Amino acid sequence: RLEAENYTPPGQAFQVQSLRLAKGGQEYRVYTWFEIAGERTANPLAAKLHTLWARLTRRPGGQAVLTLIAPIGTDPAASRRLLDSYLTTLGEPLAGLTLSPESSLQP
Fold first, then answer.
1. What residues contact residue 107 under an 8 Å CB cut-off, 6+ apart?
2. 96 DSSP β-pair partners
3. CA-to-CA distance for 106 and 42, rounded, in angstroms?
4. Which of 24, 31, 39, 42 is 20 to 30 Å from 53 at the Cα level?
5. Cα–Cα distance between 79 and 65 in angstroms, integer?
6. Does pLDDT of 94 surpass 70?
């Protein structure tokens, strides 16, 4: 089973794709977003367009798909709080990361 929604975590200036996955009796909350040549998006189509535009304009920068996963357990809201907390903790380091042309994260 898969449920998906775009979601803006508290205190963040960007959206993530929030997925609720079920497999083998266990459910997981998954946050996913794309970093493309300095642009951040949760939309896979927008990520493709950013990639195309970066190549056409010869903008340096790599590409990355960032994913955070937490088990849902008995309290679905707890997994969202955990991931939101993790994003808040990562907020400043994420803001300072850029992708090199070799697609590796660098501070």
1. 93, 96, 97
2. none
3. 21
4. 31
5. 20
6. no
Whose CA is closest to 99, among 51, 56, 57? 51
- In angstroms, the CA 51 to CA 102 distance is 14
Q: What tens digit of pLDDT does each residue of 21-54 get?
A: 888 888 999 988 888 877 888 888 888 888 888 8
Distance of CA 45 to the CA centre of its chain: 14
- Global pTM value: 0.71
The tokens 């709080």 sit on which residue?
Answer: 81
Q: Which residues fall within 8 angstroms of residue 93, CB to CB, at 6 or more apart?
A: 107
DSSP 31: E
Q: How far apart are CA 71 and CA 81, in angstroms?
A: 12
Strands 16-23 and 63-71: unpaired
Helices (H), the chain: 44-56, 76-96
Phi-psi region of 37 (alpha: psi -120 to 50; beta: other; left: phi over 0): left
